[in-house]
Every structure is written in structure tokens, then in C-alpha cells.
Amino acid sequence: MSVKRLSNWKLIAYGQLVMPLAVIGLPVAIYIPPFYSGTLGLNLAAIGFILMIARLSDVVTDPLVGALSDRTHTRWGRRRPWVLVGIPLMMLSGYMLFVPPGEVSNLYLLIWISAIYFAFTLIVIPYSAWGAEISGDYQERNRIAGSREIFLLIGLLMSITAPIVGAYLFDHDGNSAGRGAMAVLGWLPVALLPVCGLVMFLSVPEPQPKQIQNIPFRKGLRIVMRNGPFRILLTTSVLGALAGSINAGVAVLFFEHVANFGTMSSVLIFLLFAAGVVGSPFWVTLGNRIGKHKGIAVAGIASLSAFALVPVVIYAVKPDHPDLVLPLMLAITLVQGLSMGAAPILGPSILADVVDLDTLKSGEQRTAFIFAFLGMVRKGAEAAGVGIALPILGWIGFNPQIKTNTPEALFTLTAMYCLVPLVLWVISVSIIWRFPITKERQKRLRTALEKRVARRAAAQVAETEIRLFE
To answer: What pTM was computed for the model?
Structure first.
């Protein structure tokens, strides 16, 4: 069976929408805690609790939007209307979050962080499902996810560069989490989102759904939870999300208070994502050759081997050779960056293969619901990560507004940045290695699915003809 290869323009037109989402998504994770605590003066533990509560709202909204998107039928498609609604909400909430008025309160943060998470749901769930449905081919799905990941990393690079430029232009103290630096982040999505959305709407068609039947929600939920490959993917994703949330939530604090990088923190983060752009095409190729799940595992082993050296650098090298800390951390970051593209590229591609199995079992193409269900659980884990890390730091006595914290507070910060995530990531990598859907099995799934859809279509034609002659 020959597969139509997508044009480069369609790959670009689809992938580029994620760029403005990344511009605002990363700062929400890494800049909101230091900005709202260090610059605006809110309590760090309260911020962690607010971020957790706002994130938990996605437990309701994600599956709801996913299910409604799957069953939306308009002349413009199933996915476009939802993305179209989400874009203006994202623009408004991003601006209010990063360009706040003079005084802010916990309630202000809760309102706008909740609004921006809801906007992400409205855009990302249908957008991800749209990408999974563009092609049913094992390798083409890697290309689609690869295009999205490259633009994601470009957006992340912009999100790192923008605060540096903003701090230089508007904040005289050079604070990358100051009001001027954050204001640039608030305005960027306002400028980019309408343009990127228009490009995708005009250039990327929505395929017709391979619908066999509609099933009740509860029955569909039981079917997906009996899906063995989905359960494996769910478990490894939850562990990875929990680890990533704990790590990202304290990364800036670790760089400033433990590693003492100062303004070099932004350079380190920039290198991470720049290396990610360079390494992304390699993971598409490797995933095609050895299997997507093994590609993720290989990248994880490489990244974690380097990341495990962070405590060695801090506790063995730094006391006697502080001048070596930055170059060693740069080397570790480079390895992590080159490896970081594997999971975001190959993971959604794997999930698209899982959707094929679910469609075969349930009879309904529920792409957005499957992506939303996984996203819902991941976001719950992310909420738990922030809700765990920041309150623990506050309880142990860590204060982001002072330069000298206790050794116990600094060790806890190091544990939250490195040691705890490291254990969770190791378990996650060991689980994904055993994922059962290979390239050969996915081809058999697609063949069986196409045959079932064809039989259903033929039966409907025959039924129509019988009615005509009655």
C-alpha cells in the first residue's frame, strides 16, 4: 500500500502553530514562580498551590473538549472551530498574566493562570488530534510530529531570548524575571498567534474521520482503559510529566541559588533548546529505524546519564573548582538538549498508533478524546509536581528573595531539581522500552481498520439502495 508523502509546506504550515504556544508555555512553567514571588512579592508556597489548583481544572476540561471536538461537525471541520475559539483567549490571558497591573493578588494569579490553561486545552487538544489524523502511516506520523517539535523548540528559544532582550531594554537591573522582561513575553503571542493560526487554517486540510459508530462515553472509557499499549504509555507519561514538572518548576531557582549562574542561567536554557532543534531530525530517523519506543528509550538513557552528573558537579567539583561548574553544566545541558526532542516527537506519534487500536476496538475515531485523556492525566501529574516542589521548598525555609539560604534549603532545592526527577525518569524509560506496537504491528492495525471502514461503507450503501427500492 503506497503512502502519500506530505509536502514540506504542509508540514511547516501545521507545525508552526505550536511556536507561539511554546513562547508562552515555557515561561508559565519556569518564570511564573520567580516572577510572582521574587518580583511581585507573592508567597512561594501559595504560588505552588495556585498553580496546582489551576492545573487540576484540566482534569475536567481536557476530556470534555476532546470528546466534543471528536463529535463536532461543521463545514470548517471538527478541529478548526475549537482552535479558533482558543486563540483570542490565549492572547488575552497571556497578556494579563505577564503584563500585570501594579499590585497583584493570589486571586489575580489564579484567574489568569486558569484562563491560560483553559486556552491551551481549547487549542492543543484539537490541534494534536488534527496532526495525528493527517496521515495513518507509521513514518509520516514521525515527520508530522517532528515538524511540530522543531517549531516548538524554536518557540522555546524565543521564550528564552525575549526576557533577556526585555530585561536589557526595560529593566535596568538586568533581571530576566522583571516586569520589562515579562512584558515582552506577554506581547509576543498577541502578535504571533493570529498569523500562525491563519497560515494553518488556509494550508492544512482536515481528513474525514474514519467513523464506524458512536459509542457512549462510559463504554468508551472502559475500552480505552483496557487498551494495554495505552496503559503503558499512560504510566510512562505520568512519571515523565511528574519529573519534568518538579524539575522545570525549580530550574531557575536552582541556577540562581545553587549553581550561582546569575544571568548565565538564560544562556544555559537557550543552549538546551538550541541543541534540541539540532537533534530533532535525528530522532525522527532513529525512530523509523529501530522503533519509536526504543528511540525514546535511547534518548532517555543518554540524557539521564549526563543529568546524573549534576550532583557530582555541585558537591564534588564546585567547592574546590567553582570555575569548572559552568562549562561542565554546559556540557551536561548539551547532551540533554540533543536528546530532548525524542519524546515530544515520537511520543505523540506513538499515541496516534494507539488511536488506531482504539478505533479498531471501539468503532469510533476518538483521536481528540484519547489525546485529551492522556493530557488530562499528565496535567494532573504536572500539577502535583509543582504542588509538591514549591511548598516543600517553602516549608524547608528556602527564600527566593535572599541570596544566602541554609545548606538544608539548598540541598532540598538540588533534590527537587535533579535527584527526585532522575529517579522518576529512570522508571519511565524502563517502562517505555517494553511498548508493544512496532512498525509491523501498526501496519497490520491500519490494514484491519481500513477493511472495517470499507465494509461499513459498503453496508451503508447497500442499505441505502434497499431503501430506494422499497
So the answer is: 0.73
The single residue listed with the C-alpha cell 510529566 is: 241
Which three three-digit cell numbers place residue 185?
513575553
CA angle 3, 203, 275 (to 5 degrees): 75
Range of the domain at 400: 8-469
For residue 215, what pLDDT is reported?
Answer: 66
pLDDT value of position 46: 86
> Which amino acid makes up residue 312?
V
C-alpha cell at 251: 530550574
Residue 3 lies in a domain: no
Asked whether residue 307 is domain-assigned, the answer is yes
CATH number at residue 81: 1.20.1250.20
Q: Give the up-direction half-sphere exposure of residue 263: CA atoms within 13 A in the CB hemisphere.
A: 11
Q: How far is CA 354 from CA 143, 228, 369, 404, in A?
A: 17, 9, 12, 50
Whether residue 57 is contained in a domain is answered as yes
Residue 286, SS3? helix
Q: Tell me 31's DSSP state.
A: T
DSSP state of 74: -
pLDDT reading at 2 higher than 50: no
CA pair distance 240, 263, nearest whole angstrom:
28
- Look at residue 170 and give its three-state secondary structure: helix
As a whole-number percent, the residues of the chain with pLDDT over 70 amount to: 91
The residues, any chain, with a CB within 8 Å of residue 410's CB and separated by 6 or more, are 257, 258, 398
DSSP track, 312-371: HIIIIITTT-GGGHHHHHHHHHHHHHHHTTHHHHHHHHHHHHHHHHHHHHHSS--HHHHH
> Would you say 151 and 15 are in contact if contact means Cβ atoms under 8 Å apart?
yes
In eight-state DSSP terms, residue 308 is: T
- For residue 80, the Cα-to-chain-centroid distance in whole angstroms is 20
pLDDT digits over 92-109, tens only? 999 999 888 878 888 999
- Grid cell at residue 195: 498569523
435 with 232: CB under 8 angstroms? yes
Kindly tell me if the per-residue pLDDT of 298 is higher than 90: yes
pLDDT of residue 57: 79
Q: What pLDDT is stored for residue 176 in this prediction?
A: 55
How many folded domains does the chain comprise?
Answer: 1
DSSP 379: H
Give the model's pLDDT for residue 213.
Answer: 55
DSSP 8-state secondary structure symbol assigned to residue 38: I
Whether residue 105 is contained in a domain is answered as yes
- pLDDT cut 90: percent of the chain above it: 29
